[in-house]
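Troubleshooting log. The previous run stalled partway through. Resubmitting the same five chains, unchanged.
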Amino acid sequence: MNPLSKKAGIPPGSMVYIGPGRDSPALVERISYNRDSLIVEQISSGEPFSGKADMINLILFHGVHDVQAVHGLALEFGVHPLISEDIVNTMHRPKVNRDDQHLFLTMKTCYTDKETSSVRFEQISFLVTGNTLVCFRENADDFSVKIRERLASKDSRLRNSGVDYLLYALLDYFVDNYFHVLEQLGSEQDGLQEEMLDLPAAEHLERIFKLRRETSALRQAIWPLREIINSFLNHDEGFMRSRTRAFFRDVHDHCLHIMDSLEMLREMNTSLHEVYLSLASHRLNTVMKLLTIIATIFIPLTFIAGVYGMNFEYMPELAWKAGYFICLGFMALIGLGLIGFFKYKRWF
Amino acid sequence: MNPLSKKAGIPPGSMVYIGPGRDSPALVERISYNRDSLIVEQISSGEPFSGKADMINLILFHGVHDVQAVHGLALEFGVHPLISEDIVNTMHRPKVNRDDQHLFLTMKTCYTDKETSSVRFEQISFLVTGNTLVCFRENADDFSVKIRERLASKDSRLRNSGVDYLLYALLDYFVDNYFHVLEQLGSEQDGLQEEMLDLPAAEHLERIFKLRRETSALRQAIWPLREIINSFLNHDEGFMRSRTRAFFRDVHDHCLHIMDSLEMLREMNTSLHEVYLSLASHRLNTVMKLLTIIATIFIPLTFIAGVYGMNFEYMPELAWKAGYFICLGFMALIGLGLIGFFKYKRWF
Amino acid sequence: MNPLSKKAGIPPGSMVYIGPGRDSPALVERISYNRDSLIVEQISSGEPFSGKADMINLILFHGVHDVQAVHGLALEFGVHPLISEDIVNTMHRPKVNRDDQHLFLTMKTCYTDKETSSVRFEQISFLVTGNTLVCFRENADDFSVKIRERLASKDSRLRNSGVDYLLYALLDYFVDNYFHVLEQLGSEQDGLQEEMLDLPAAEHLERIFKLRRETSALRQAIWPLREIINSFLNHDEGFMRSRTRAFFRDVHDHCLHIMDSLEMLREMNTSLHEVYLSLASHRLNTVMKLLTIIATIFIPLTFIAGVYGMNFEYMPELAWKAGYFICLGFMALIGLGLIGFFKYKRWF
Amino acid sequence: MNPLSKKAGIPPGSMVYIGPGRDSPALVERISYNRDSLIVEQISSGEPFSGKADMINLILFHGVHDVQAVHGLALEFGVHPLISEDIVNTMHRPKVNRDDQHLFLTMKTCYTDKETSSVRFEQISFLVTGNTLVCFRENADDFSVKIRERLASKDSRLRNSGVDYLLYALLDYFVDNYFHVLEQLGSEQDGLQEEMLDLPAAEHLERIFKLRRETSALRQAIWPLREIINSFLNHDEGFMRSRTRAFFRDVHDHCLHIMDSLEMLREMNTSLHEVYLSLASHRLNTVMKLLTIIATIFIPLTFIAGVYGMNFEYMPELAWKAGYFICLGFMALIGLGLIGFFKYKRWF
Amino acid sequence: MNPLSKKAGIPPGSMVYIGPGRDSPALVERISYNRDSLIVEQISSGEPFSGKADMINLILFHGVHDVQAVHGLALEFGVHPLISEDIVNTMHRPKVNRDDQHLFLTMKTCYTDKETSSVRFEQISFLVTGNTLVCFRENADDFSVKIRERLASKDSRLRNSGVDYLLYALLDYFVDNYFHVLEQLGSEQDGLQEEMLDLPAAEHLERIFKLRRETSALRQAIWPLREIINSFLNHDEGFMRSRTRAFFRDVHDHCLHIMDSLEMLREMNTSLHEVYLSLASHRLNTVMKLLTIIATIFIPLTFIAGVYGMNFEYMPELAWKAGYFICLGFMALIGLGLIGFFKYKRWF
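Second attempt completed without errors. Output:
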């Protein structure tokens, strides 16, 4: 539940990687660009991280488990020990931190694990200092390719804007992941509903609760991010240019939209749970009612059979030639009469 | 669930139409008016959108799927790329956006689909620049006719007020649609309740949840609109004339009224759900209780029949002449006694 | 549900009466008073409404369905069209509206309908201009008599205070009506609980939900009123004299008290619902358990009878002289044993 | 429910005692003290209430039903009519009221009625004017003795502080009563839980709801008091000395603590309700399951007995010498087999 | 429930120890340090508590039940009586209190009791005055050892920072305990879920509610602490150095993280409760359905046996040679047919 307890009792500022263990060194890539040129370099361990002063430098740091490399970078850029601790601690709550030289922002992005079709979170940290932006994460995906594509054209807005716009573009990219996950959750919920209407089973309940937990986890991840971007918009001290402002407001709107959709998903989930309970109990009731009706039809008939099975010496009907057949007919009449009565009462 | 994910990963400011696909070009109508004259024109694609500078120009833009045309208009009026993105993205959350030249407002109106009798939303965007108001929407209805009727008379307040009053008149028109939908939902809920009291069926539950989802969706649409109009009233920078102010406050009151009614609908819906559950369980209980009572009456009788069906050699009653009839009478007595007892206990 | 939709699409400021239709003209009474004299006049349609400038004028306007008369008064006192619209629209949310010359306040009062014993609301609007207070409502009751009684004595506080105190006295009168209704609801709820404890029936559930809806409606009516009086106390611009202030604060406290009581009623209602469900299920369980116990007692007995009804050629017990009676005794033993066992287990 | 409705329609400022009727005149005691001397006097009706100007005067007024005496005191101290109305109206919501000369504070204290073991509230009002503090309540208890004991010692803090500390000491005394009641409720709840675990009965449900109502009533009484003391701490205009401040903050903390405990009690109550429902249904299920199992064991046996009771002419088993015993053995086998199967399945 | 009621009615400022009784005197240890030296001393009762003025003094006070010793320390450091009362009263709500010379902060830490595996809380109070920090608690654990280890190295941040950093380090230590407890609760909840899926039992419900109560208690303990640290960050009057500020913000973030995790735990607990109810009812339904199916299969068969047990004189089938075997075969057919039908309907 709370791997953070690994850290309890250790002096603050100690860097302890919290997450699934890894051994390989971090993969670090530096993309330096300005209007005129675009340089992409791999940085081996030991090399300095800083790029050219007259270019915008985007450092993609993959593998925050490599505490050593994070420490080196933190030293080089003069980062507060608590912040390097936060980068490595991948269980952190989204937060923003500013001082004179640095802007630090950590958030969570999410994706759906193809195999288990469950939601996974990944912590992304951004460190802005001067015209350098470092993006820390654990796993590499095709993100680096996409960003290079968008930087390829000399006329792209990304190429011609400052580091503030670059931060926006990255934030936007990782926030947009939520929409994929929302869509996935929505369609999973719809599929679940259809299956349930066919035959409600106990495992549906489990899946309903899994979806509920995921919706909660998404809300816990996006809620502080919204706050952060909001405080960012309201108390910006000279970092953001006025024309980038509108873009950050747009990310903020996306967060609100995601929260609305989560609210909607949550309500649908609650309805789904109620529908499940209702369907399961409806099905049970139908079965029990039908069984009880069958029993109720036979009980009077068995009683009649019992009567004529009595051994009284004088029972006139027994001596009748057609007694047996009259009795059978009478039983059929009662049986059909009861069935008719139950049908009329719409009991089945 | 979230067609917005179509957009994820695409550079911001890209215009992607989100909604049911269409091919036809946009239909654009410009109504220019002042105290003296009223001109209605259809604008073909390629023509400039701007009207006369000394008149108030209302541009009704039907068909936001025509990304090209929206782009053209945006260019002509100098609109920020993010805003033209928002116009085209019909899944947007209601919002307001102001800069020096432009006032942009997007909201949702709603109507009930005649065929499926479910609630549909439509996004309406307003762009005010100078004395021109552009109203973007996807579908054309008789709105254009109504607005021209109200502009026909030279003495109408609409004809004699500024572009701020025009914006109010349009907002008021689209907010009023909510009242129609509320009435529809209310009468649907009342009808549902009556049907349910007759015979509660599983499909009623589904309809209860449909109504609940619709109530939620309406609340999600009207809630940010109320906020927007409120912020509009509190932080207006020279756009609104003081005598139009009262009218905007009136729309604000309508929003509050709608939210109150939605709250009421929601509570009624919850009650309806509880009534359904209670009725369904009451009905089942009545049936099961009656069936169990029938069984309980026959069980002792069958036991008696069983006793006299035993083959003991010495059973004095069997030899009695009237034994059989005494036995039958005794059984009838017990049966009627039990029925009387259950009646007395008010068990059925 | 929402008669307001009658108004949707009509130009704003149009006066449309919303409520049960009436034909008769409005009844208007003017009570003018100062320290020295007290004049009560009926105002026929067409006569001016304004009273003497050196007296305080209370105009009681009964019958807001008479749109013509309201229009006339609005014109005479220079009232904004939106306000005259609000007076006539009796579905309005409580609100307050101030401009330089006028103070407009609309609220809801409530009473219990004697016949249906359900809560009815009536909209009361107040318009203060100069030293004239107009009180608009639909129905006349003994209110006019009561106010004249209080004005009769030359030494009454009402007679010696300004129009602000007059407004307070009227507000206080209409707010006090809520206490009557609260008491009525409370005693209805208590009666319901007693009936339910006797024998829970399906119609009790309906009455529980009726009470819940009424409690909600009362809250929706009193909540904005409290806000209004609060904003009134905080942002008064010269209308209220300092010694009247304490009285308005008193009305505010009454609103808070009403809201507390409503909260309490609501909680009692929820408990009542839970008690109903619990009682109904308890009753059903008692019945079913007893029936099942009866069946369970007879089932082994019937089995024994069945055994001795078998036709095996060699069954020694059958030949015993006392076999039948031993068998009956054994059955009685088993029956009583089971009853004793169930008693011991406290199953009934 | 709402005895306040007695007051509806009566001119404001009228003093109407709301509470159980009494006839006896009020008992008024005045304790005047300073560093040097301590005087305790009974004040008969008609005598002036004011004490010595150079001493601190604590007037304990028991019996607010004596409207005449309250009126006399109000006149003597120049109290606003609305405040004397509030003193007499014992259903009032806790509130504070300040003007130039007076500080008026009304709160509720609570105690558990020994006989019915239910929570009772009593309204306590404090009026501070100059160095006189009047404490109004309906019933006398040993409070007066306790306060005199604490004043007895010349070195006690109470004796050496101002009227502000005196007010604190009284507030603290009456707030501390809540802790007694909380403890009582807590132990009642614990006892209830134990009884329930023994055998859940319908009357437990009633007691659960009684406790819930009492918890709500306590919250409604303490919540506004907390607000009052808070506003007192934040907007004090020269009444409180700085060293008394810490003591008032302490009472404020006690209110918070009480609210936390109430929240905890409420949650425990909800759990208790859920445990009750769960236990009651568990017990019913155990009984029904056992009964059904008994029936299910006998049904196949009865069938076999029925088979050998058939009258076919050729049934070979019937002629076997040991047929009957084989049959009985077979029945025993089936019966034991079923019991074993149900045990194995852990069905009972 | 509320041992605080021990205190009700006693003059404020009286020190009454609230907690499990103890007799032994308090154990007091003083750790004085600066850059150059580190002195650890045991302080016997009667000795002065103050350390050297030019060193930072950490006084670890174990055993707040020793009211005498707390009183002595309070006198020596000039602490307000209400604060010494709060130190001793171990049921206090977390709070902060500042005056010119002192900073007082009380919080709750938590740990899991090894034996009962339930959550225990311990109150920790901090008193800062000059460069002395006193840490009051009831029980001694290995905390003192850990803090001395961290002080051992001359280069540790703790050794080289002020009393503000020392307070941070202690706060951080006690807040980190929450993570251990969270982890414990989380794994307990997971274990419970697994056990439940095996066979839901009544005692699981009890454990679910125990976990819920503990989650609530943790929230009640951490919530005010978060507020306190927040107010600390916002209204610090010269106590904190700017570089310590970031560390306090880090503790604040930990509190937020704990609250998020508690929220998550709470939701999981609710789900667990719903899963329990669902599983228990599912299991019962399966059993009852199967039993009813068994009964339903035998009822028609028993009826047939009854029919051929009738004693009519003329029943042709009885005379057939193979009658008995045809009848048995027919019964088997009906029985298998019903089983097939129920299987086909997926009823078991």
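Takeaways: The longest helix of chain C spans residues 242-307. The domain at 161-276 of chain C is CATH 1.20.58.340 (Methane Monooxygenase Hydroxylase; Chain G, domain 1).
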